[in-house]
Amino acid sequence: MEPRSRSFYALTAFFGVFILFLYGPTITIGILSFQGEGGGLTFPMRGVSFYWFFDLFEQQAVGDIWGSFRRSIVLGLMVMVTTVVVSVMGGLAFRSKFPGSGVLFYLVITALVIPSILISLGVGLLFSQSGLNVHWSTSGFGAQLTWTLPFGLLIMFAVFNRFDKSFEEAARDLGATSWQTLRHVVLPIIAPSLIGVALFGFTLSYDEFARTLLTSGSYNTLPLEVYGMTTNVTSPVLYALGTLTTLFSLLIIGAFLGTAVLVNRRRARKGSDAGKAI
Amino acid sequence: MVSPLALVLFFFLVLPIILIVVVSFWRATEFSIIPAFEWDNYEFLFGSPVTYKVFANTFKYAFITWVFTLFTGFTVAYYLAFHIRSLTWQVALFLLCTIPFWTSNIIRMISWIPFLGRNGIANSALISWGIIDEPVEWLLFSDFAVILAFVHLYTLFMVVPIFNTMMRIDKSLIEAARDAGANGVQILWNVIIPLSKPGIMIGTIFVVTLVMGDFITVRFMSGSQSANVGRLISNDIALLQYPSASATAIVLLFTVLITIGIMLRFVDIRKEL
Fold this sequence. Notes:
With about 280 residues, chain A is an all-alpha fold. Chain A has 10 helices and no strands.
């Protein structure tokens, strides 16, 4: 190996500063959420305590934190399952040209780049004008799908661009029906990437704010609740909530990544024995 | 196979946009909106100097954020793709860069308060180093804070696509350039940057559209002192002025689509995934 150049060390330093910039603020509020009872929104720490976390569990005057947390999780799971199923189906369909595939592709891109407030406003208007009530599980659900589906589909496009079609041809030559080919050949091969799609589906929904704002109705999701708190809560209880939700997010991300690693390992171990007997 | 996707996009994307177009021609009273067909909302919008100021401000945010995210994102992606030698480390460091994307943007905005506040970490540090004598007021609730937050939130959208294209650059091209006598800067400028263009364009589209459509970062980080188009719309919505909000939204949508249309002339997204 050739020795490291000087630019390597400069770039490593730059990368380190970038990581500090990314995580520093979050770590800071993590520390500050253990602020003592008399402490304020910034340093110095007046002692170390769990006061603000307990406060979070008791104080219900500001809103319904736990209800919104529950709703966010249910909605996240709904969005996750729908995103995975619809993205796989869409990804499979997009492998060949069909009437309107060009238009649909541009709609997907539009859904991704359209300012979120238009979705919020438009879906809100759609429901109010057709006499329906906006609710997080209907209008909020649909509005969030316009954000998660493009990501899911783009991942599926990337997966199928690298997909070796000879596996399918082999299955077909052996007499598999198209459903059998899908069920026993295609889906097992793309399964690890579905974990990625699911991760996007859940976390993007769980943190979604702009598209849910006007479409969730009278019951808030957690990000809306947090946003409401920023305008009327000026104590470290805000940090305590931020720390807990971030920890929850990290837990979810860790679980998904861990599953992906396990699946890959299992696959490497129990891989095909084709050709080994020769 | 494709019908669920088409249905979702029809009901939650196409119909809402059509409805916004329709409502943008309606009339609003203080309490309700009335179907009509009049250009008043657009006339008011284009007749008001505030509109032009706010649109200019929106472009300003988008441009400055683009410059910073591009520089940072490109440098980070370049480091990961060409200076990290083992794939495991590349994946690990890449994940480290992307994890914040899966956490809450609002929390990430809030987390700047202890840094930038009047008695925050930045001010105390600057005072203790003797650079300033009294706290600087413009750190939090200013354009500076807005752009800092944008860069903080959206640099990932540059890192990921640029890293993706860089990983597909054939390493032998770089060796060939070195054999032909190119130095590091020349390789970067004449080989790597041209080949990374698709990733740069995709990242640019993400960052520019996210910043132009934003309304919450500007509101929160500027302490309601600055405005962009998104805030104009959300203020109208708060006042139940849906027709005028719709008219502004349509103009914003066209602005964004035209901007992207220009960028898409340079890159074919589907080939680059």
